[in-house]
Task: inverse folding
């Protein structure tokens, strides 16, 4: 859903459909393997929470300089 909204509201000419789809497949595979209950999204939610916390910490610590800038 995020990619579809990005197509309409995104300001970048480059849309990140490929990496987003690959990451979704990886999360689904991880969550389905580890989950003891069928169709339980707990591991996917925890993985998303940790990913957001890491991004938040990087933002507070101004670690955006570690990421390479795209060539224009």
Result:
């Amino acid at each position: 859903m995020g990619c579809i909204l990005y197509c309409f509201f995104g300001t970048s000419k480059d849309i990140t459909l490929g990496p987003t789809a690959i990451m979704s497949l990886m999360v689904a595979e991880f969550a389905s393997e580890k989950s003891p209950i069928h169709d339980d999204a707990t591991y996917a939610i925890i993985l998303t929470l940790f990913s957001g916390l890491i991004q938040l910490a990087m933002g507070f610590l101004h670690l955006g300089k570690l990421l390479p800038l795209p060539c224009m």
